[in-house]
Design brief:
Layout lengths: L5 E2 L4 H23 L6 H21 L2 E4 L3 E6 L5 E6 L3 E8 L1 H6 L1 E8 L7 E7 H16 L14 E4 L2 H11 L1 H14 L2 H28 L2 H31 L3 E5 L2 E6 L4 E7 L3 E8 L1 H5 L3 E7 L18 E6 L1 H11 L11 E2 L4 H26 L6 H25 L1 E5 L2 E6 L4 E7 L3 E7 L2 H6 L1 E8 L9 E7 H14 L9 E3 L1
Parallel strand pairs: 19-22
Antiparallel strand pairs: 1-2, 2-3, 3-4, 5-6, 5-11, 6-7, 8-9, 9-10, 10-11, 12-13, 12-18, 13-14, 15-16, 16-17, 17-18, 19-20, 20-21
Length: about 500
């Protein structure tokens, strides 16, 4: 296979065409369903479809790849040809994604992960399983400098974490995946005028049917029957959502297995669409220990990870599920800490010296919440006064006092739990009340540091210490330690900056 040119699988054109069709599938469907069918539109449409299929076949068949001594050569294009030379040092991981159609046809989609971020170095749609495994073995052997490794039997990899059926059921019950999917689906449907009018037009039928049965019960005063029926409907809805969430969890996390091969972490999961992703331990930059209120009820946490060059955007069809972004979707705290210890051997969780935030944190949180709550309370009071106090002045005062007390309790709980800690080259920050998070960052992987303060922060003498990692998302900072004293934040920033050993100095900005 080395030094010889190879093509993609002969069925690649199907997947290339499918990826392209997705971009205009909705407009095409709207034209077929709602468009006028005058003239020879079917003939022209058929000719365009045949031409498009022929072009995708030529594009797929013109794709070539060759493995050299130190690089992977990729050549593609029909009229305009492109030749790419990818050094092995730039290929930090080889991931596979197999949807149901891939599995039925015995092929796989290969993603060569980049070392510098943004998007994969190459996406091969698609290869046969034997060719993909041989290519992956040769790349691994070339990177290791051991050609014999490509044909030798690999040693069994130790399993670090595995999800059984019971854990997947627990994950589905606490994830509310069905509610998220239904919300996204509803939002997409309501964006289309035709679909929205259709829903509005036919929604009156079930509403009338429901009203015909509930109004007599209301008129006769049978409130017990109404409460019983409402409770039954609510229970049935919750049960259906839970079952759907569990089903979605099985589709994604079936056979979830995390293994360690030398310094490389490998994960595989999926029922219909299977994913196999990998990342070297030195590429791991930050970890997130996630503990929602529901996860705490069952004694579980979630451990996510961000790697160098992780594709945060949906580029080249690479969705987040096709890369290594979770070490444990659900695990006990002991299991999650053991995985962290594997990635960071010098981190001793029990010996961490957590530093509390500034003493003005409670005041800062209260004022921040008041920006949104106070206008709503004033609007409620004005509406109540305008309509002659239908709620009652005492009830309004009681509601205001209750909201204020809840805000104070929440701010105090957040300030009590929030803290940061340093352990060698590792920086940690914890925060949250109902949903608690522990962010773990390797300081040597930080790209930039930033001190930010609003006018209110400056009055209180506090700042936000923010940090970005190499190849991180443009829309989300990996670390944001709020409410740190100015002097303390400057000392911490200086310590972190001395540990950043990048070949090119990154800008250090302050906004104080």
């Amino acid at each position: 296979m080395r030094d010889a040119a190879h093509r993609l699988h002969w069925l690649s054109w199907i997947f290339v065409a499918g990826a392209s069709v997705k971009e205009f599938a909705i407009p095409l469907l709207a034209f077929v369903v709602l468009g006028k069918r005058e003239g020879n539109w079917a003939l022209w449409g058929g000719a365009l479809a045949i031409g498009f299929a022929a072009w995708t076949m030529l594009s797929a068949f013109s794709y070539r790849y060759r493995i050299g001594e130190r690089e992977l050569l990729i050549r593609e294009g029909v009229l305009d040809r492109t030749e790419r030379h990818i050094p092995f040092s730039n290929i930090q991981g080889v991931n596979q994604r197999r949807k149901l159609l891939h599995r039925l046809l015995g092929v796989t989609e290969l993603h060569l992960e980049s070392a510098v971020g943004g998007k994969p170095e190459a996406v091969m749609k698609v290869l046969g399983l034997a060719a993909a495994h041989e290519l992956e073995a040769l790349l691994h052997a070339a990177r290791a400098g051991d050609a014999a490794h490509a044909h030798g039997a690999p040693a069994p990899s130790p399993v670090l974490h595995r999800l059984d059926a019971a854990e997947i059921v627990r994950l589905g019950l606490v994830s509310n995946r069905a509610l998220v999917v239904l919300g996204v689906l509803f939002g997409l449907l309501m964006q289309n005028n035709g679909t929205r009018q259709f829903i509005i037009e036919y929604a009156h039928v079930p509403i009338q049917w429901l009203g015909a049965r509930l109004l007599p019960q209301v008129a006769s005063g049978h409130w017990s029957m109404l409460v019983l029926a409402g409770s039954a409907a609510l229970a049935a809805t919750v049960l259906i959502l839970c079952l759907l969430s569990v089903l979605l969890a099985f589709f994604k996390y079936y056979d979830f297995t995390l293994e360690l091969d030398g310094e490389k972490l490998m994960v595989r999961h999926g029922l219909l669409s299977t994913v196999r992703a990998s990342a070297r331990l030195p590429r791991l930059q930050s970890w997130l220990l996630d503990e929602s209120w529901l996860l705490r009820r069952i004694g579980r946490v979630r451990l996510a990870v961000v790697t160098t060059g992780a594709a945060h955007e949906h580029e080249h069809g690479l969705d987040p599920g096709a890369s290594l972004n979770e070490l444990a979707p659900i695990a006990t705290r002991a299991q999650a800490l053991k995985l962290l210890k594997t990635c960071l051997p010098t981190l001793n969780w029990d010996d961490l010296a957590w530093q509390p935030l500034h003493h003005s944190t409670v005041k800062r949180r209260l004022i921040g919440q008041a920006r949104w709550v106070v206008p709503l309370v004033l609007a409620l009071v004005l509406v109540d006064v305008r309509f002659g106090w239908p709620i009652g002045a005492l009830a309004v005062v009681g509601a205001v006092v209750s909201v204020g007390l809840a805000m104070w309790c929440h701010a105090r709980a957040w300030a009590t739990f929030a803290a940061y800690a340093e352990a060698g080259d590792v920086l940690l920050f914890r925060h949250g009340v109902w949903h608690k998070r522990w962010v773990v960052v390797v300081s040597t992987s930080l790209q930039s540091l930033r001190l930010y303060s609003s006018p209110l922060d400056r009055q209180l003498g506090i700042v936000h210490l923010q940090a970005d990692i190499q190849g991180g998302s443009r829309h989300h900072r990996v670390l944001d330690i709020a409410c740190v004293g100015l002097a303390e934040a400057q000392v911490l920033r200086s310590h972190l900056w001395r540990r950043i050993q990048a070949p090119i100095s990154t800008p250090l900005t302050s906004k104080i």
